[in-house]
């Protein structure tokens, strides 16, 4: 390495932590280096623990806040110049200055009263560095404006995240979310949604679980079952209140689960769907059948899932009988035109972060008009048209969902959206297409929670 001359203060960068510009005090009297940190929190497995912390990189200002994380290398007692001893977490990271870089150990502590966000001790000063104590900033100047640049957002490093998967089931999708997340170095915790309870207040909203307040999560991936939609979305709303990034928001999940509301949203966005009718009074049975058209028709419960509560009525008389039966059960339902040319097939498009990342054609079991895989249907990868792709993306966007399964029918007049699923299963489509869908979900999560600056209003 070339020789570097340091003054008593220099601009430095810690790129692995997402800190491209810091002022550091050079102190050869101190053995260890220290970085200003707050909200210090340990997470991850006990065998390989990590620490997450926040940094105010601009001295005297807390309106720029960077979230960082790193593996814990050690925890040791450090005695300050005033004689006080503090037990600190120690991490290793790369120091970059003057076009050169090398690894250093850094302790985490509160330096809010100090003018420099970082102190560089003699352990971090390589042999090729010459200290000129009477000088100041001999290396190139950096600028705090970098924290608000597009370049930082693009180049921000991936960091270890703490992620919650809201799920009550030990199924393929949940296991894959844990497996893929941990393989990327994240800590993924599966939380039973119904075991969560909430402290609802204006100053410090919290989510509790198993007698303890849940920690700050970088992201929440909801896998909310249809039977607990109301409570599950209330838990998600609580996480949203605390500022946690949720892959699918509470409003989108709620709207997608109510089939009537969902179809009204799709209609409002002028997205193609089968002709649909709804009425509350039994005296309007003939009228809603007339709105849909001639038999056969589909009669569907508003909260049906996996093909349950969906009936094909092949004649007008059969439709009236099914409607009377549903009304007798005080069930809410809607009536839809049956798209004959679909021939028991539909297309599931998996939309992640505004893009169709995989699609499969699902074919119903012999004699069944429903194509759900849970009902014995089969699936294979399929190439979709540009119109089908655009329709799926628009449907997912209409509900504001980061990850969704959009079910389409191929009709003579173009693609028709049957449903937008806010908790799509990953097993069928990953096996049919051979794609790592869960990996793409994590790509989106990582992009959303990169250590970019958060600006707070003063």
Automatic annotation (TrEMBL):
Keyword terms, alphabetized: ATP-binding, Ligase, Magnesium, Manganese, Metal-binding, Nucleotide-binding, Protein biosynthesis, Ribonucleoprotein, Ribosomal protein
ATP-grasp domain segment(s): 263-446
One MF annotation (Gene Ontology) recorded for this entry: ligase activity
Taxonomy, superkingdom: Bacteria
InterPro entries (alphabetical): Asp_endopeptidase, ATP-grasp, ATP-grasp_RimK-type, ATP_grasp_subdomain_1, Peptidase_aspartic_dom_sf, Rimk_N, Rp_bS6_RimK/Lys_biosynth_LsyX
Record-listed E.C. numbers: 6.3.2.-
Cofactors that this protein relies on: Mg(2+); Mn(2+)
Any single Gene Ontology cellular-component annotation: ribosome
SUPFAM superfamilies linked to this entry: Acid proteases, Glutathione synthetase ATP-binding domain-like
Uppermost EC category: ligase
Protein name: 30S ribosomal protein S6--L-glutamate ligase
Organism: Tateyamaria armeniaca
Lineage of producing organism: Bacteria, Pseudomonadati, Pseudomonadota, Alphaproteobacteria, Rhodobacterales
């Amino acid at each position: 390495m070339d020789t570097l001359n340091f003054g008593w203060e220099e601009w430095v960068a810690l790129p692995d932590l997402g800190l491209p510009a810091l002022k550091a005090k050079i102190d050869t009297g101190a053995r260890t280096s220290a970085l200003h940190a707050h909200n210090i929190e340990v997470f991850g497995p006990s065998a390989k623990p990590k620490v997450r912390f926040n940094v105010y990189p601009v001295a005297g200002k807390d309106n720029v806040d960077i979230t960082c994380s790193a593996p814990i290398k050690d925890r040791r007692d450090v005695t300050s110049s005033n004689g006080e001893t503090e037990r600190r977490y120690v991490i290793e990271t790369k120091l970059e200055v003057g076009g050169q870089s090398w690894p250093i150990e850094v302790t985490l502590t509160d330096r809010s009263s100090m003018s420099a966000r970082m102190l560089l001790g003699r352990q971090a000063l390589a042999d090729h560095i010459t200290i000129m104590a009477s000088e100041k900033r001999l290396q190139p100047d950096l600028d705090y404006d970098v924290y608000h640049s597009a370049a930082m957002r693009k180049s921000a490093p991936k960091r270890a995240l703490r992620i919650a998967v809201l799920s009550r089931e030990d199924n393929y999708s949940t296991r894959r979310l844990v497996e893929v997340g941990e393989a990327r170095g994240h800590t993924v915790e599966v939380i039973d949604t119904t075991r969560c309870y909430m402290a609802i207040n204006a100053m410090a909203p919290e989510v509790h679980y198993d007698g303890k307040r849940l920690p700050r999560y970088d992201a929440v991936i909801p896998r909310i079952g249809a039977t607990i939609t109301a409570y599950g979305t209330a838990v998600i709303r609580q996480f949203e209140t605390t500022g946690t990034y949720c892959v699918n928001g509470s409003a989108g999940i709620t709207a997608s689960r109510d089939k009537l509301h969902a179809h009204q949203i799709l209609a409002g966005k002028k997205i193609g769907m089968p002709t649909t009718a709804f009425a509350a009074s039994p005296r309007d049975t003939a009228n809603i059948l007339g709105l849909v058209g001639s038999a056969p028709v589909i009669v569907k419960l508003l909260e049906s899932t996996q093909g349950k509560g969906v009936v094909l009525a092949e004649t007008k008389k059969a439709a009236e009988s099914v409607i009377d039966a549903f009304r007798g059960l005080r069930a809410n339902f809607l009536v839809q035109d049956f798209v004959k040319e679909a021939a028991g097939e539909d297309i599931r498009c998996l939309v992640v972060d505004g893009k169709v990342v995989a699609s499969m054609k699902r074919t119903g079991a012999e004699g069944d008009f429903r194509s759900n895989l849970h009902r014995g249907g089969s699936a294979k990868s399929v190439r979709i048209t540009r119109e089908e792709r655009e329709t799926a993306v628009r449907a997912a966007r209409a509900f504001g969902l980061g990850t969704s399964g959009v079910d389409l029918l191929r009709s003579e007049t173009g693609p028709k959206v049957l449903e937008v699923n806010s908790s799509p299963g990953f097993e069928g489509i990953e096996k049919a297409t051979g794609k790592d869908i869960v990996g793409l979900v994590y790509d989106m999560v990582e992009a959303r929670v990169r250590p970019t600056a958060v600006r707070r209003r003063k």
